[in-house]
């Protein structure tokens, strides 16, 4: 697999510029096009009210939305430094639905993490959970504060969080451009069934792709997510690769276990697939 088009979610929060710069660095590294996507949802009229009343309340709502999109476009152009093939996609729509729509022509999506302790997302912000569930593409979820600030993602030391299933298999395949260039890859399984997940087979597969890889079976003390993060930090990893496990219920996006912990508190970038 190769990345020919990398799609980055552009909003106006404080982490957006670093997110765009990181995505741009990846696009240059993999000789890909960088596509910026931003959307702002125009308020719909109340079901029981007349459309004219909405316009009377704020006749400039579309103008304000387009002004926000213009700011996002300007930020994208400033942050995605040349030389780089670029594209821009904006819409008067929900940020999540627009990003999912644009994912049909992308190989990798780059979005910001939205944990409970992270800064609230603005009008253009897209939560990664629904994007993961709907995009059918690998999603690189970035923490809001990468150290050092504005640093590029090399993927020199990669932790593959292995739980045998279609999600993890897709994630490993999607991460091969990183894995092939990594200095060290750690295939990690956690919990009581760690020995039965086939981590050794996955490590052998990645070795055939040229990876320097080792296998690690971790005993869970607090939670699988906690053990995974402890291991990743101890090994000085700079990327976690894993499947995203969740389901929908009453239009809410629900994730449990390791996926929830990674989406809410991982200090490292996570390349995830659902």
Give an overview of the whole structure.
The chain is 36% helix and 23% strand. By secondary structure, it is of the alpha/beta class. The strands form two sheets. It has a ten-stranded mixed sheet with strand order 3-2-1-4-5-12-9-6-7-8, with helices on both faces.
Query: Whole-number radius of gyration?
Result: 20 Å
Q: Classify the secondary structure makeup into a structural class.
A: alpha/beta
- Proportion of β residues? 15-25%
Strand order of the largest sheet: 3-2-1-4-5-12-9-6-7-8
Q: How far is it from the N-terminal to the C-terminal residue, by CA?
A: 17 Å
Q: Give the overall shape, derived from the CA principal axes.
A: globular
What oligomeric state is this? single chain
- Per DSSP, the total helix count is 10
Topology pattern, helix = H, strand = E: EHEHHEHEHEEHHEHEHEEEHE
How helical, in percent, are the residues? Answer: 25-40%
Task: Write down how many β-strands occur, each being a DSSP E stretch of 2 or more residues.
Answer: 12
* Spans where pLDDT lies below 50 across 5 or more residues: none
- Please outline the major beta sheet: 10 strands, mixed
* Average pLDDT over all residues: 88
How is the topology of this model organized?
Blueprint: E1 5-9, H1 16-29, E2 33-39, H2 51-57, H3 61-79, E3 86-91, H4 95-102, E4 108-112, H5 128-135, E5 139-142, E6 157-161, H6 166-174, H7 176-179, E7 184-190, H8 199-208, E8 213-218, H9 224-234, E9 239-243, E10 246-249, E11 252-255, H10 257-265, E12 270-273
Parallel strand pairs: 1-2, 1-4, 2-3, 4-5, 6-7, 6-9, 7-8, 9-12
Antiparallel strand pairs: 5-12, 10-11
Helix pairs in contact: 1-3, 4-5, 9-10
């Amino acid at each position: 697999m190769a990345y020919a088009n990398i799609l980055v979610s552009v909003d106006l929060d404080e982490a957006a510029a670093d997110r765009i710069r990181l995505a741009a660095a990846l696009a240059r590294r993999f000789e890909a096009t960088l596509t910026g996507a931003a959307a702002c949802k125009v308020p719909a009229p109340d079901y029981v009210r007349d459309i004219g009343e909405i316009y009377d309340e704020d006749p400039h709502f579309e103008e304000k939305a387009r002004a926000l999109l213009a700011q996002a476009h300007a930020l994208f152009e400033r942050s995605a430094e040349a030389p780089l093939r670029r594209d821009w996609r904006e819409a008067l729509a929900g940020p999540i639905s627009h990003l999912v729509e644009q994912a049909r022509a992308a190989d990798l999506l780059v979005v910001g993490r939205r944990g409970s302790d992270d800064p609230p997302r603005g009008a253009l912000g897209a939560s990664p959970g629904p994007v993961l569930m709907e995009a059918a593409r690998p999603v690189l979820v970035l923490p809001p504060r990468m150290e050092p600030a504005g640093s590029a993602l090399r993927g020199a030391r990669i932790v593959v969080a292995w739980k045998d299933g279609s999600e993890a298999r897709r994630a490993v395949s999607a991460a091969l451009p990183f894995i092939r260039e990594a200095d060290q890859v750690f295939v990690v399984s956690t919990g009581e069934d760690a020995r039965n997940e086939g981590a050794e087979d996955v490590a052998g597969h990645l070795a055939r792709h040229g990876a320097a890889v080792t296998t690690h079976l971790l005993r869970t003390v607090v939670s699988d997510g906690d053990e995974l993060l402890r291991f990743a930090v101890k090994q000085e990893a700079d990327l976690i690769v894993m499947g995203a496990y969740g389901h929908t219920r009453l239009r809410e996006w629900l994730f449990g276990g390791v996926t929830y912990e990674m989406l809410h508190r991982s200090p490292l970038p996570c390349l995830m697939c659902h």
